[in-house]
Structure formats: structure tokens, C-alpha cells
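Before any further analysis, we paired sequence with C-alpha cells, yielding the entry below:
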Amino acid sequence: MKRKTLAVVISVFCLTLTLSGQTYRHISGWPQETNDRIEGFLNSTITMNVRKVAVFDSDGTTFGQVPYYLADEALYRYADEVLKERKDKEAKEKLKILDRMVKDGNNVGKPYVEDRVHFLAGLTPEAIEMIGYECYLESYRNKTYPEMKQLVANLKQYGFEVYILTASPEFLYQKFVAEEYGIPVTNVLGAKCVVKNGVTTGEIIPPIPQDDGKAHTIETFIKAKPLIVGGNSRGDMDMLNESAGLKIVVNPDDITVRGPEDGPMSGHTVKSYWEKEGALIVRCNDVRDPKVRFHTEEWKIRQNIANPK
């Protein structure tokens, strides 16, 4: 009798999933244990009567960042192919901004991140969009993580809103990220600037999704407590801690031991910290394509560490 009752319960549960369209599809490339954990969590959200939101970092989390960030490559590529051919005042001013960025060298620091916006100021949103899109087509088209695309497809099946955050200029990333992941461009949030008369300005609208600014971006623009958050670096710690459910960390560094300036992560690598916190650690292949020329290399910007799977 008990066996019959259990069989009925299982049948009803499976039927419910089928009718609702909330059926998990195995993510190839990740182990069964990882799939089981994700599927179990998604099934636990079926009866939730709330906005189901998932938020992910961009570079290094949803697509590769080796050897360089796409935002940098897009800007230095534009300088080499467009600005260096021009002699006008605007071109010279933009090249001066790049020289300042190169001298700074810290391409995850706030001044550098803000200078990306200043560099693009004066262009239309559509022009910036195409600078990012063309760079993506030329150098990053094969760097979107297939496992993350499968994960996002599953999230859509379970009724999740998916947002992707970047500290890079918003207009630079929106077109290619939205196309790759099948989400609205308005769900790709980055460094925002004021647009006046159809032209971008250097006036930045806070918060910038960088470090704790990523957590503030969730509160300010998404306005919901996410059930799933994904990131890859120290800069994603505050955002990951906004998750009310599952934390997913992609290719976390296990070499650099963080210092006191990193708060609760002090004394840990990124990987060991998130293992301690019970996050789900996943691997995605992120290595350099030797056939691709990177303009960023010629500007001597530091390379990101490869993560072969």
C-alpha cells in the first residue's frame, strides 16, 4: 500500500513539472553531483509565489575573460583602427584618456572603470553598442560558456528573470550579451551614463556594478532579492552575498590569499572562501585562442589567468 501511495505521489509530481514546463535539462560538461544540486534547488522554487530572480556577473562568469577583458579589447581595438587615423581634437583627447588608463594599469579599479565611460563619451549609444558587438564577433564569439547558457535556459524554464551585471559601459555589452543569453537588453546592467540629445556624456549614474556596487545595483535597479547569484572573483563577493538561495562561483582563484582589505575573505583564496561558505563551485573552459590577435596586448595591459577545464 505504501509503495502504491509513493508511486502516485511521484507520478503527480512529475505530471506537475511536465504541465508547468518546469523540467530540468542536464547541463553537459558539469558533473552529475552539480546537476543534482541545481535541479534540487530549482525544484524547490516551483511553488514560490515571488519574483524569481537570478543575477550573474559578466566577464569570467558568463563568458571568458582570457587573456583580456572584452571591454578593454573593444576600446584599444577602436583606438588602433579608428582614432589613430584621425588628427582631430576629439580623437586626441580620447587617446589621452587611454594613455591615462594604461599608466594606471589597474583595470579593475574605480578610476580605470570610470575612464572607460569617459573614453566613449560623445558617441551615440548605437555606436558604442556596435564597438562592443564587432569586438565580440571578431575576438570573443567562441568564449561564451556553453554550461552557463544551458543553466540560463533551465532558469527560464523555471520562470526566472535573468540579469547579467558588468562594470563595463552598459551600452558596450548590451547587444551581444542579450543575444547570446536570450534576455532583454534592459536585463544587462553596467556602468551607466547620462544621454543627452541622443549622445552619451561622461556623467556617470551610480552605482557602478563594481565590488559592493554590484550589490547596490541589485537593490537599486532590479529591486528584488535574487534566489541565485553567480560570480567568479573577489569583486563579486558582495553581490554573491545578496543571494537568498544558491551561490554559484565559476573558476574561482585558488592561488592568491586575500588580505585584511578583503574583509571576511581575508586569509582565504576566493575558492577556499566560497567552499567554506557552501557555494557551488563550477568549472568552465577559459583559455586563449592563439589565432586571435588582441590589440590589448600591444597596449601592454595585464593578462588574466587562464582556466583550462
Observations:
- The chain has one domain: 26-298.
- DSSP finds twelve helices and seven strands in the chain.
- The beta strands are 53-57, 161-169, 188-196, 199-205, 228-231, 246-250, 280-282.
